Amino acid sequence: MSLTQKKKNLSLMGILVSFGIVYGDIGTSPLYTMNAIIRDGGGFKNLQPDYIIGSISLIIWTLMIITTLKYVIIAMQASNHGEGGIFALYTLVRRKKKWLIISALIGGAALLADGTITPAVTVTSAIEGLKSQNLGLFTFSSDQNVVIAVVITILLVVFAMQRFGTAKIGQAFGPIMCGWFFFIAIVGFCNLLSYPGILKALSPVYGLQVLFSPANKSGFFILGSIFLATTGAEALYSDMGHVGKHNIYFSWPIVYLSLVLSYMGQGAWLINNHLNVQSTALNPFYAVVPDSLTFFAIILATLAAVIASQALITGSYTLVSEAIRLKILPRMNIHHPGNKRGQIYIGTVNWLLCVITIALVLYFQNSQHMEAAYGLAITVTMLMTTILLHNFLDTKVSKWLSGLLTAFFLIVEFSFFISSAVKFEHGGYVTVLITLAIILVMYIWYFGNKVRSKYETDNEYGCLTDYKDQLVSLSQDEHYPVTSTNLVYMAKVKKGHQVKKSILYSILDKRPKRAKVYWFITMVTTDSPYTHDYTVETYGTKNVIQVTIYLGFKKSQKVNVYLRQIINDLIEQGTIEAQPQRYTTSKGRRVGDFKFVILKEALSLATNISGFDRWLVSARIWLQNHTATPIQWFGLSFSDVRIENVPVNLGYKPHIKLRRINHKKARQYETFEEERQ
Q: Left if phi > 0, otherwise alpha if psi is -120 to 50, otherwise beta: which for 608?
């Protein structure tokens, strides 16, 4: 990247937006991480200074190794046109080994699944701090059902805001998150001064020692709680496309310092006060805050928790968008409310996440149960990312350095995976089940297409040049009624002018459709936001036209509008004949009527493929027919659209040739059947 491009990407506003979009998840980890560590230590009364110092040392160095080194320094070098995340990384390395698709499927599904609990655990942790708080003349209820109602209301508002775009949200949330990090840093630093010995946590030696210390009641499995401090690292990488990596480079050191001071402050307070704690429900995050600022801290924490949910949601959009382009997930309607490609909104993903997140709140009821289930699936994603990252590093650094870094990260992350495995029975099974469901959809969509391609033969496609004479003849044949002036098929024309024969069958065999012009339209989305170009192939005729439309990602796919303009252009150029209308509300109209034909596929009963392959292709076709329809995708809701069912025949099955018999032989068959009855 040139210096000019770097300057363009890096800006004060970009850094501010990055606070509002990228760091919500990892930035709110101080709300619940220390709670989990206290439970692992046997409760407040059983805490020992060495245990607290060692635990915070593990947090500091986990953030350094996983978040800073792996993701900020290394993984963010692997960007696909500025976008990050496990699917962007897979795109860069998929040609190296075919089996890497498995890592991408598992990692992407686990990230999406584990992310459903992020909004639930962060918002619930924050709102629980309001219990029994005096707000002037009003005292907040201590009833958990009230907390759940407030959490659900907040989540509904957050998900409803998404359609306005991440740029607007980032600009609104950025200053709040800046205030959040400043607040936790100052509070942490002030508490740190009460026990400067907590600075020993900066040494990794204390972190290693606590793993084997008798003060650590959980032993090695404490890493499952330590991991909560860095669960937002993968989302940070996924959100890179929303703000640009250079803005993350400049903002992350501020975030990291704030987190370290917050954890140290909580640790210092615990060492000084753990024996005096009366309530086991006390959250050390709020305990370190002066009483006069407690209500302010709760409000700020709630806002930060909302922003944490935002980070997850925008990261999910990016992942799903990349998965659609890679043909790993079914096509969905993607909107671009911002001016950058990374700023997107996918309504289907948004509301599906909303439903699942609220269901998890109702199922787990409180943040303690959510924390027990949180983080298991994300360890799987990190392992899969490391595998993909190894293949990327092989192209950038020497083999031995790539292998050394990969081995190091795998050892660290596998340790977290093993220590988090105990969470399965405490609720981790929920995110595992969601992961498996997403993997199933991805597997069907991706491998169903592979299986279909394997069984497709050359007979499935026909060359337009071979059929142009028939099409021209049919266009002029007055023995057939006119179906439409312009008959349009949304057809991906492959190299060599190859098009699916089902389209040609629809025109020529299935009640021949006479039209003045037959249009075969291919849509291509470009990386530039406002591209609006097209190419035309006429095959030397005025009746058979192939058009490829190149649209920027910001342009809506209103095919009927674009096609009308293209026809006007071609008429002016004399490429096709004018289409004057005798009866019209538009004076001087030169463009005739349109009929769009959409082919809806179904697997033919004559298909001769194995049972599992047959199920896989059938399932993919079902998904294809029940997700974003071509009518929605191409903006044809108000156009004249005809849907035709077409069979998909895969595999060759020889037909049995019937033989003709006389009536005497037929009577023998009938007599035999009567005797059986």
A: beta
